[in-house]
Task: structure prediction
Amino acid sequence: MAERGGVVALVQRAVSARVVPGAVWGVGDAAEITSAGACGLADPAAGVRMRLDTVFDVASLTKILAPWMVVGELWREQRIDLDAPLGEYWPEVEGRPLGKVTARHLLTHTAGLPPRANLRACYGTDAGQVRRGVLAEDLHRPPGQAVQYTDRAALVLGYLAEHLTGASLDRAAERIWRPLGLHRTRFGPLPPADAVRCAPTELDPETGRHLQGVAHDFSARLLGGVCGIAGVFSVLDDLAAAAQHLLAAAASPGSWAAESLRV
Result:
């Protein structure tokens, strides 16, 4: 209970100090969620209170929930070799700089990809052109030389997942989410009925309104809402279920979650 009290006090102080307008929190482990709660406002402009079922733009958690989980399932099914160069089984990158990179490089941010997404400036606004440009791009440094976090790693993993599954990333991810009980997790943009329950994010200079049910991440918006970088919306219960699944798997030698942590 002391742990719960510490979390509650921390969240309440953040809300009182206007660090955040509101928050939803949960505490637990692989076995159970011991406590959860909500505090403050989800939408200060409308006076809407934060609730346990408030929908959030989960931003970079998309990288774990979508491409990471899909590639994990492909590994479990022995449909991908994490240490084989991508060019050996992905014709789009064969003979290109990215062809020498492995899936493990992408998962561990050691692929040597350019450090910034910068998609619109580099490739324009057409999704197909962005894909072709990203897959043909020169590397920033040799694979395996250094760890450098980059959105491009998750973007490429998403493209790889689509190639290997023959499905769009959102459809491939849903096949994993639903059996785990993630029934309110999906890529945006959200339909109006779900968007109204979503915590707004930044002020959109084009519309003069806060984004609500539309991805905050510019790359995700550029690509229609579905990509490996960002774009997923979810709720506390779903995120807790996903975290518990991964924590339990990570404790099992030879599991995907354990394998993905091996650099």
